Amino acid sequence: MAPTSASTRVHVDGRVLTLSNLDKVLYPETGFTKGEVIDYYSRIAPVLLPRIQSRPLTRKRWPDGVEGQPFFEKNVPRGTPDWVRTVTIASPGSTRGSEEVEYVVADDLPTLVWLANLAALELHVPQWRVGPRGGVRRPDLLVVDLDPGPPADIVGCCEVALLLRDLLDADGLRAWAKTSGGKGMQLYVPLAETSGDATTAYAKEFAEKLARDRPDLVVASMRKSLRPGKVFLDWSQNNPAKTTIAAYSLRGRSRPTVSTPLTWEEVEACENAADLVFGPDQVLDRVEEIGDLVADLDSVRQRLP
């Protein structure tokens, strides 16, 4: 898709969209434009959509580019087309207990392109889905966020991820790894639907065990003063109110990077943080060459011990 400054009407899977300011630079360091963002999301859609379908989306938007002020958006924005799927549910994090949020649910390519045109660079999803009539289901993923405290980096995260893989394997659970698209990474464990309390308790248990076994490398406490030089295992991401960056989503950093699924061989071989930094073109090439590394997440349903 060639970037242009004028608005452009396009047909996407039977929907008509108006795309605007396609030549607007959203990543000044590299000159990556909104048109290129839309192009990436259009081309990565076959593997991205399964990761976000039926999951209420929290979007992080950069209308003025990554050097401007971003904002998180949960509710549908004004002007949302009537063909975009939305679902209204009680906010999981509401302290009042009665607050409702009308979320966007991106189940198709037109919705994904529409979001990209809004400069929704980052797509964040919970570990649970909604049913066809909007009913909230129980979590079907356990996620562990590995967050390195400088000077630790993703190399340390890989070392910890391998330890976690062994712990999970001992409990009969298979895990998938991906980069966060930033400085850290995440592990996903697909589950038969279970409660958020159960996934959180289990994740906290093995995070604290690993922190006891490897206090030189791992911290499971929320106290930020303990994190420098170690990898924080954020087990709290399993709280139903929390969201995690979706696999294949862009990140709003100085350069366009992508949250990228990894092979365990790549995790084992990582010796330099730059080894696991992937841009949009690289990710598209990876998918063409080695396929969707997280495709099995939808077919594997494991049970917590």
Can you tag this structure with a few keywords?
305 residues, alpha+beta, six-stranded mixed β-sheet, four-stranded antiparallel β-sheet, 6 helices, 18 strands, EC 6.5.1.1, NHEJ_LigD, MtLigD_Pol-like
Topology:
Blueprint: E1 8-12, E2 15-19, E3 25-27, E4 32-33, H1 34-52, E5 58-61, E6 71-73, E7 86-90, E8 100-104, H2 109-117, E9 120-125, E10 141-148, H3 154-170, E11 176-179, E12 185-190, H4 196-213, E13 218-219, E14 231-234, E15 244-245, E16 250-251, E17 257-258, E18 261-262, H5 264-269, H6 280-290
Parallel strand pairs: 13-14
Antiparallel strand pairs: 1-2, 3-4, 5-6, 5-9, 7-8, 9-15, 10-12, 10-14, 11-12, 11-18, 16-17
Account of the protein in words:
With 305 residues, the protein is an alpha+beta fold. The chain has 6 helices and 18 strands. The chain has helices at 34-52, 109-117, 154-170, 196-213, 264-269, 280-290, and strands spanning 8-12, 15-19, 25-27, 32-33, 58-61, 71-73, 86-90, 100-104, 120-125, 141-148, 176-179, 185-190, 218-219, 231-234, 244-245, 250-251, 257-258, 261-262. The strands form 6 sheets. The protein has a 6-stranded mixed sheet. A hairpin with a 5-residue loop joins strand 11 (176-179) and strand 12 (185-190). Helix 1 (34-52) packs across helix 2 (109-117). It starts with 7 loop residues before the first strand and ends in a 15-residue tail after the last helix. The relative contact order is 0.16. The model has no long low-confidence stretch (mean pLDDT 95). It is an enzyme of class 6 (ligase). Residues 33-293 form the DNA ligase D polymerase domain.
